[in-house]
Amino acid sequence: MATNPYIALILIPIVVGLVNLILPRLLQKILTLIGIGLTGFLTLKLALDPEFFEWIYEIQYLGLDKLGIFALVGMQVLALIILLFALKGVNSDIERSFFILYPLTVGFCNGVILSDHAIVFMVFWGLSGVTLYLFNLLGRGKEASESARKTFMLIGGSDACLILGFVMLGLAMPQASWSITAMQMPLSGSIAIIAFVCLLIAALAKAGGFPFHTWVPSYSKEAPVESVAFLPASLDKILGIYLLARMVMQIFQCAILVHMILISIGAITVIAAVMMALIQHNGRKLLGYHAVSQVGYMIMGVGSGSPIAFAGGLFHMLNHTIYKSNLFLALGSVEKQTGTNELDDLGGLGKKMPITLIMAMVGAFSISGLPPFNGFFSKWMIYQGLLDLAKEVSPGYEIWLLVCFVLAIFGSALTLASFLKYLHAIFLGKLPKKYDKIKEAPINQWLSTGLLSALCVVLGLFAMELPLKMLILPILEENGMAGFEYAGLYKSKFTLVMMGLVFLIGLITYILTRKVRFDAIYLGGMDALEKFRVTGTEFYQEIRRMKPLCTIYDWAEKKWLDLYALLGGCSNSLGGLFQKAHPGLLSLYLLYIVLGMLVFMLLK
Fold it and tell me: Which sequence spans correspond to the domains of the chain?
């Protein structure tokens, strides 16, 4: 059996986490920074020079290809930047536990990517779910325990599906010797279809795709903000889409109908989550729903079967982890300074926290798909791939595909509308008097959001030169996917120059012609009370009241669209039915035994 030398990337962070059990807080932070930094350095060396690892002890069951290198690089970069934010600001009562779980999570997630053996893969996948649950328990909100339970049930249930799927594949293909990269099965027959569905459930639940997404907004609201940026916004997205990419590119041979189903799941994820994000009044839940919505684009791209859309889906996965971590951390800075993440209670903080405002604007423009930021380029690739695919399919599939395409475009427009609300509610408008003494976030916090913002710009301007050419296109070449050509005349640098020129002209025009007068606000002849202050969420109340959207929103508030609530309700109903059917009477119990024996004999 082939051996590979990647155990160090798993052992270093796990050993750091275990040693942190006995260290004081300061040494915990230092050791975690050293361990994550060393792991990141080794990963970059591996990506640039694979022979660098020849000195490390070899171990079986680990493997790495171009897709794995791409996922590893993304995870290490995000883990290091988010750690910078967490070095100062994590609540003191959870700080010790946080710096134990953080490196352990990195080690477990690295183990998922490096595992070529299905059983080893399942072990690390499950361990990463355990740390996700434990991070959720560190939350201080009233609903933290319920959120953790919800996360545990949905992720744990999907883990059972993952095990079932791989067991079926292992038994159906003993010649693969449980090697994931050697599992290649046509998607036909009941065993293959059931295995595919089971693995798909696991991938969607981990990434936060519809209909297994409802744990993400709850987790986002209740867990420590650093862990939200770290897991559902970053590492879990990478793991879920990584598994989906393995499924459609290597493990299964998918027909066009399967690709269309995956594209449809992606489109539904986009539109359903962004509609929920529009009406949120809690900043963290708004970002949580957008974390779900953006997964839809990844599913559409990776699941499409189109080379350019597949590359765009992987690129969007990387982009999302960057700008969504930026947005969560920027909101975290605001939350730590003001003590709240409720949009109705915020406003006008741009004057007090200008650096955080700029970083949040970059993240908002990126997730909204505005050029020349990174979110535009990856969405553009996905759109082009879907249109190219539409040329090759039958008319019925073409109409189906175009409907999904329109939903994705509409979702992007709604994303922009939602983040205009987000920016206005937090940073614009009138500053509440209680925030008069608010100061800018500490240097470690705006440094981390600044690095993420810089990546949003750099990956947008140099998308072809950096992530695509160096990391993503080699994945397609390694797996025999046909090459592609870009359509259109989009040039990122030219777009940047033109947008800068337009901004400069607007600024000069404003300076030369401005006539601004500031007046006091009166209501009924008296100074307006602060409770009458207009917040950034007022306009979006109209969306909540629109027909037929109001009916759907009512269903969502009653949790009729929440898979966790539905399963819990079915379980309770079934339990009640069994209680009524068997109240504990011995005579009734004996009757059931006799009836069961009669049925068994008749069937036999």
Answer: 255-484, 540-575
